[in-house]
Each structure stands twice: as C-alpha cells, then as structure tokens.
Amino acid sequence: xxxxxxxxxxxxxxxxxxxxxxxxxxxxxxxxxxxxxxxxxxxxxxxxxxxxxxxxxxxxxxxxxxxxxxxxxxxxxxxxxxxxxxxxxxxxxxxxxxxxxxxxxxxxxxxxxxxxxxxxxxxxxxxxxxxxxxxxxxxxxxxxxxxxxxxxxxxxxxxxxxxxxxxxxxxxxxxxxxxxxxxxxxxxxxxxxxxxxxxxxxxxxxxxxxxxxxxxxxxxxxxxxxxxxxxxxxxxxxxxxxxxxxxxxxxxxxxxxxxxxxxxxxxxxxxxxxxxxxxxxxxxxxxxxxxxxxxxxxxxxxxxxxxxxxxxxxxxxxxxxxxxxxxxxxxxxxxxxxxxxxxxxxxxxxxxxxxxxxxxxxxxxxxxxxxxxxxxxxxxxxxxxxxxxxxxxxxxxxxxxxxxxxxxxxxxxxxxxxxxxxxxxxxxxxxxxxxxxxxxxxxxxxxxxxxxxxxxxxxxxxxxxxxxxxxxxxxxxxxxxxxxxxxxxxxxxxxxxxxxxxxxxxxxxxxxxxxxxxxxxxxxxxxxxxxx
Length: 532
Description:
two-stranded antiparallel sheet; Cyt-d_ubiquinol_oxidase_su_1; 19 helices; transmembrane
C-alpha cells in the first residue's frame, strides 16, 4: 500500500472528525443545562427560567443541526476510505454504531422537534420530560460511539477467524463494559459539560458587560458555574482514570505521551516540561515532578512504567511471535478446513501477536520473508511521533486546571459576593470561550494519534486498513470537504453570533411583567416586616 494514500486517508478522516467534534461537546453540555433550567421553571413557575431555556435552546438547535450533518459524513467514510477496516472488524465496530443510530439518535431526533415546537402544545411537566429525553439521547449517542472507539483502543470480546480473515464478536458484554470505553465516555461527557458551562458563562458575561438582559445573564452564570465546577473537577478525576487504563492497555501510548525513553525506577516521575527529541531518544531541558506518573499510570509506588526503548525491544519479540501465527494461518487456509489440531493449536497459541506480523506488510509483501533489519524497522514503527503527543496532552491538562480555577472564582463571586463581577473577570470569561474546544481537540488528538501505527490497537495496522483509492481521489475529496466545512463553519458562527446579539426575544414582556410584580411584592413585604 502506498504510504501517501494512507496519510491522505488519515488526514481526511482527521479533518472531518475534528470538525465534527466542534459541535459534539456543546450539544452534550447544553442539552443538560437546558433540562436543568426548564426544571427550575417548572418547579418555580417563574417565566424568566422559561425565557432562559428558550434562548439557550435556540443556540443548542443551531449547534445540533451542524453536528448531525457532519456526523453522518463521518460514518460514510468508514466504507469509502477505510473499506478493509470495515471488512476486518465490521462485526464488532458496526454493532455499537447501529445501536446508536436505532436507539440514541432516534430518541434525540424524535423528541427535539417536540422540545422546540411543543411549548404551546404540551403542559410544562410534559415539556420538561421531553427536554430531559433530548439530553438523555445526546448522552446515549456519545456512549455508543465511545464504546466503538474504546474497542479500537482495547479490543476485547472478539477473536480472529482464520477462514473469514475477520474479527468476530464473542462476548457483547465485554465490548459494552470495556473499561477503556467506559473511562472515555465519562471523561468525554464531562468535558462536554465543561464546554457548555464555559460557553454559557462567556455569553452571559458579554451580556453583563453590555448591560443587557442582566437578570437572564446572572441566573445563567449561577447555573453554569455550579454545573461547570462539578464537571471541571470530574474531568480531572476521570482523566486520571483514562491515564490508568492507558497504563494497563496501551503502554506505548503512555510512554510516548510522557516522552519516557527509558524505564525508570518505580514510581516514575511526571515530565511537566521539556522538548522531546525522537531521533536522539531523549527529552531536553526536562522538568520532572516525582512520583506523579507512577501514581497516574499504575496506582502504586512500586510498579514500573516501561520506557519506549524497552517497549520497542519487546515488540520485536511480538513481531517474531506473530510470524509464527501468520505461518500457521497460511497453512490453515491452504488446508481448506482440513487443518490438523496441532496446527490450529499453534495458531491459537501465537494469534495474540498476529497483528504485529502485519506491521511488516509496509516493508515486504510476505512478512515471513522479512529480514531482521525489517523486523527492527517495524518494531520502531510502533513508536508514535512523541513531541505532538507530549505537548497536546500538556495543553489539555493545563486548560483543564484553568477551567477549575475559573469556575471556582465565578462560583464564589456568585454565591458569596452577591454576583459582584469585576469587568476584567467578565472580559476574561468572554475571551476563554474557545478554550474548551481547544482542550477537547487536544484530547482527541492525544487519544487517536497516540494509537498509531494501529487502527485497532495490536490487531490491525493503519497501513492495511485503507481503501484502494488513488491520491487524486483523496486529494479532491479532501479539498471538497475542507471547502464545504469551511462554509458550514462560517454559517454556524454567523447564526450563533446573530442570535446571541439578538438576545432572548421570546417572552421578554411576560418575564418583565412577572419580575415587576415580584419585586413589588418583595418591597411591600419589606415595608410590613418592621411593623410586625
């Protein structure tokens, strides 16, 4: 396979996936925030909470439509650009995607119409149930997609069939309760909650700076900071769980993220800063924090985290072992169902490393003819590019702790200082609106780029997964996607900014009348109180 085709296929999928994920976290978080706001409206009967729900719901709707459109394109790419991958693991990977479409997406898509057009046709209680169902559908969509992605990171509950040359599911519940998938789900969803909270906080801060819709803005900040603080704290805790799962199941990814070239005595330190040099296999000007990496990666102070150099040597052995499995596989297929039990037993004993033998396909058509030098080259290919992983991870972590600080500050100002926000803080809240998206994209880059050279970790190399397309096919479609998505992005930003500037148009008069009566009643109560 031409390496240029592989790289173009990866670039195209990365462009569409990262663009799609611009919409996903806001959908996840805003759906829950809308449900919270409408619940308060149903419980209190105060029209301003209805006004808030409808205003933020408009922004949610714009984002939702673009998210659906870009997500559908991604699923088509599995068949168009990654046909051998779809053939090889379709029995496992396709099941969560089908369930997501049949259950979660239909749930979300069905009730979102009722949420937008049912305000005057449903009772408040029925409408808030609909809103919660939309939020539930959004989160269920993320669950099934992340189960599929988690299986690519940690392929469990499946086995390879020598005759069909495909992976076949053996235990659906192992796939469903894959610890990597569960850790990814809670971490990703929590990151979406932080994204929506920062978005609501920033837009509300802009309203306060402009002196517009201040009642809506202050109440929105109260919801965003409470919800966002809990979410920001959980992101850090759940991200730690993802680090532990990587230490258990993807040791090379963890070593590359840390730029840990040599195995250190336990507990390993965390490199807070440095400049990885992959050719020299060292990290220059490194600043270490003792013990931290050992705790993240192993949950202990006595277990070692293997370094990149030792893992490369270990992978040389796995490639050699995989060649035994590959040779047995070829003999089994040649026997056409008449293979001896001994031959089958040989294959089963070494089949866990079959994927490592496939890494040699990059250098030789028949991996069994590979030279020792080619085996070393294939083992070195199991090391992803270190410096992008090293820095993307640290940008994500730094932003995660920054969100905690922002939420603590605004939570304290909201609940203990009467909502007295300095103008510099409000400006900062507006400026950081894009930051959660940067953190989310860095997180996905770390997860997916760190899995290379595998499409399915340890089983299917990326170089074997692509369709038989030409470079011209990929270049033309890539340019078309970039052009189309750029137009959609401009439309998205234009609509969002338009409706933010317009503000909460619906129910303004009703809300203002209710607030006037409410404030009048409070004033009368205050006048009567001393007499009593």
